[in-house]
What we know:
Chain A is mainly alpha-helical.
Amino acid sequence: MSSSAPVARRASALGPGLAALCVLLALVAFLSVTLGSRSIGLPEVLRALGGLDQDGSITSTVTLELRVPRTLLGVLVGAALGVAGAILQGVTRNPLADAGIMGVNSGAAVFVVIAITVLGVRGAEVYVWFAFAGAIAALVLVYAIASLGREGATPVKLALAGAAVTAGLVSVTSGIVMTDVDALNELRFWQVGSLAGRYAPILAGVAPFLVIALIASLGFGRALNGLALGDDMARGLGQRVTRTRTAAFAVVAVLAGAATAACGPIVFVGLVVPHLARFICGPDYRWILPYSMLLAPIVLLLADVLGRVVAAPDELQVGVVLGVLGAPAFVGIVRYGRLSEA
Amino acid sequence: MRAWRPALVLAALSVVLAACGSGTSGTTTTASTAPSAGPWSFTDGSGKVITADRTPTRIIAHAGEAAALMSFGIKPVGIYADESVKTDANLKDLDLTGIEILGQEWGKIDVEKAAALRPDLIVGDWWPAEKAHSGLEEGVDEKSKKLAELAPVVGVSQGKSIVDLAKGYEDLARSLGAEVDSPGIAANRERFEQAVAAFKEATKAKPDLTVAAMSPADDKLYVANPEYAPELLDFQRWGMRVINPDTPDPGFPYWENLSWESADKYQPDLVLWDGRSFKPTSNAEWGRKQPTWFKVRAAKAGAVVAWPAYWLHTYGDFATELDKLTAAVKAADPAIGD
């Protein structure tokens, strides 16, 4: 009895914790709509949100057409990156796994560059689909390479295949941009990772994919708990390891692919937040996944708001802010936290 | 040790060079039949005086600088440009046969090819904000910077006026032995003076008209800082009220960066659009794409005109561009931005 008591207590605390995070996320989202590089008074924001501002004033345009889509995109993309990171760390039993090292960013970048150079297309609203396709193609490639051989896609082979595919795709990208400065300039904007300059069309484009994949991802908790014990143990418990892994990868491909497509590669959220969630919840993926899903957009939106406020009337890209804040945060977790292995 | 050893080598070298210099100058004084043979000197935009024993003849020049020299009949052996020579504003109408093209994008120069041309002078504008010559700025390919090792680099400063710039290249051309008062050149200058007079008249007729030089981009809206754009300073000098942005980027003071949320910070009556990216369809396109672009009232009213951003080098080009701006000023409504 004494051994199960802490677990029970933890579970009873984790439920309300999740509700508290929901409130916190709503609060941060509210901040993201009310704060920005332009200072708009709270009453004006509320009037715009209430649909009372039909005069087409800039405050209502900024609130409704810039900040609201940006915030919603931040929530969805953040949740997707957090959950994708958590699933990948579980499936590959690799604490350093995130969408980036599985080739997602490099795959998306290659497709964006090819779209610019070969097809001559321009603009964030077109890149999104190429990036999406590229991210999925890269993940499929990584998984296919890792699946070669008798024992299937083991964690070690996945990590190696991810590194190899990333290296290969990155060299293709640099090869192309070396010869085409135009592509380089366009890629530079895309590659920082930003929530700026993405409006309703992009949000509407990726939202359905993200919402469906996010819902699907929550069903993986039990399976990931099994995989955490090792492939053999999971098999012994009656799990179909290969099928689980394939399904998990498919969900990650949609989550990370759509997120990266919409905002460019955003680092650290997918890597750090699952560790944060594990730190709070312990090793149970049935809790880690929803916690990651709520913690990640909180972190992403806070970083974005910070980037908007510190440099006004200019802005810092959220990718830059996360890079600067994320590194020391991760060091802190490694140093003082319990960086568990899976 | 590491600090002073190169200094020593340099000192030794300069003694040798000085000896050579005095030797050759001695021969030129005796051989007075070749007055343009040297010695040659020119004051660079950085303030440094560049000297050579003989007047340079094998010149490699950056795009607009090459066009300026060619307008005085000096044909460079090689050109490096920031974009395709077929679209470069300075080069697209020139006959470049017989000139080696050494680069067609910013930051990339084929130095090996350049070395094979055995240049004795490199010509590129001096950019005071970056303290570097065109093609050798911060951020270019490290390999490109080796161009500076092939021959002395000179250029006129992208300083306070395009008129100074054009005059500077006239001086450079003269020092290189060019005929600078041919009728064609005089005609261009005449045309330029008329264009300035017409421009002044147009701006004088609309004393309340304000303009801002802008460059819209996907993530931000950039507002040009006239202090580092000689043509904008010229416009101001000639009566156009070009808005000075109040907080230019300290690291790259050519622009103030505005987030799209703050796009309406400046409300000019006429938008001068960065000519390097302007197309007739641009305004409508950006209005559709960026929800706040049309919050710049002049943009919404369609009061936009291309501005020859950072590329003018000759009286002729300046005259042509000024005429377009004069027409835009005449058509502009000084009440839009108020």
